[in-house]
Design goal:
There is one protein chain. It contains twelve helices and 17 strands. With about 375 residues, it is of the alpha+beta class. Strands 9, 10, 11, 12, 13, 14, 15, 16 and 17 form a nine-stranded antiparallel β-sheet that branches. A four-stranded parallel β-sheet has the order 3-2-1-4, with helices on both faces. The structure holds adenosine-5'-diphosphate.
Length: about 375
């Protein structure tokens, strides 16, 4: 069996080890020669060009993704050509367009922030009045790592974005923390849910993940699982789905957004779960039985390596980290250092959360200046 992954970033790269273990061939359509996933058989090409993508798809049994940017017309043309696309375009549009997602979640009765589609400053003024004078506006498409998200308190503060088209406006949620519920679903319907995790963001970028989410009530846990199960099945998601959640100060759980691919909130599963999100994604898109999502240790902590040392010299830091933190599991993505860029992550697991957090942070700190 051969899986084709569109996108050559670290998510495609991390699918390679489980593919080797499962005896599955993996091919990647990357954007450039130096894609993080170049360790797999890589074709370099433009994922927005239908002929390029069709030619790539011809040699694989199923097409899946490292990112959500493949245009809908390309996805639909693949399906029309008989290619197995997982997740398919109907599901994927909910991860591509935040307005499409908000409408659908409303239909499903899934809890989410107060929201409105705003087409002009007058509509934004109405919404601001409704939510107490401050709102978050988001570009429906193309946002990532906090780009395309802005806090506004006056309608004209979004004029530049409104000139490009309608926006999603949301209440500013008073959340105590962010959570993520990861789930996998195969086409024949089986679903597997990993433990709920807590995610910590800084400047719109994921920094740390604690698994399972500490100090979580049984209700939050149950509701988060129900939401993820409902979304995965109602939207017909195949593969891994990450449901990003807010836990409010009054302990409600609201959906922020979805990712339909392995996700930063699930990197801990490589070392900390019986079945990693990358192995599970391969199983799910190939419609194979899913593996156990159970944790292998009571606690895991994942810390992202962001930016890296200014001198760009990762290699000299690695042996020092290894000597200092022999229980930390290091994952580097083969990327050049650049301020703010995700270039790797570290996971530590064990009986005690504070110990795991300490070890993972201490290890990641070897890459800071
Ligand atoms: P992106 O697509 O760039 O990841 P998100 O919609 O996830 O954008 O927003 C990025 C971050 O902004 C979130 O992780 C959260 O910290 C904050 N945020 C987003 N929406 C809201 C909201 N309605 N209320 C409060 N904070 C929000």
């Amino acid at each position: 069996m051969r899986v084709g992954v569109i996108g050559g970033g670290q998510l495609a790269r991390m699918m390679v080890p489980p593919a080797v273990e499962l005896g599955v061939d993996i091919a990647v359509l990357g954007e450039s020669e130096d894609a993080a996933a170049r360790i797999a058989v890589t074709t370099v090409g433009d994922y927005t060009d239908l002929d390029t993508v069709l030619a790539f798809a011809r040699d694989v049994d199923v097409v899946t993704f490292d990112h959500e940017h493949v245009p809908q017309p390309v996805l639909r043309a693949l399906v029309d050509a008989g290619v197995a696309v997982r997740p398919g375009p109907d599901a994927l549009q909910h991860a591509q367009d935040k307005l499409v997602l908000r409408r659908r979640l409303q239909q499903l009765g899934v809890p989410q922030p107060e929201w409105a589609e705003v087409e002009d400053a007058a509509a934004l003024a109405d919404f601001l009045e409704r939510v107490g004078g401050r709102a978050i506006v988001k570009t429906p498409r193309g946002g990532y790592d906090g780009h395309g998200v802005r806090v506004v308190s006056a309608p004209h503060e979004a004029d530049d974005w409104l000139a490009e088209g309608p926006l999603l406006a949301e209440e500013v949620v008073d959340f105590q923390r962010e959570l993520a519920q990861l789930v996998a679903r195969r086409p024949s319907g089986d679903v597997a849910l990993w433990p709920l995790v807590e995610t910590v963001q800084g400047d719109g970028v994921c920094r740390e993940v604690f698994a399972p989410a500490p100090r979580t009530t049984a209700v939050t846990e149950r509701v988060s699982r129900e939401i993820a199960h409902t979304v995965a099945t109602s939207l017909g998601v195949t593969g891994v789905l990450a449901v990003e959640l807010f836990e409010t100060t009054d302990e409600r759980v609201l959906v922020n957004e979805l990712a339909m691919r392995p996700h930063n909130s699930g990197h801990w599963t490589i070392d900390g779960a019986v079945t990693s999100q990358f192995e599970q994604h391969l199983r799910a898109v190939l419609d194979l039985p899913l593996g156990s999502p159970e944790a292998r240790a009571p606690w895991s902590a994942m810390v992202n390596v962001l930016g890296g040392p200014a001198d760009g010299d990762l290699d000299s830091r690695v042996p020092r980290l290894m000597a200092d933190q022999p229980t930390a599991k290091l994952h580097l993505y083969g990327k050049a250092t650049r301020p703010g860029r995700k270039i790797g992550h570290v996971t530590a697991s064990g009986e005690d959360l504070d110990d795991a957090v300490f070890i993972a942070r201490a290890a990641a700190a070897f890459f800071e200046d």
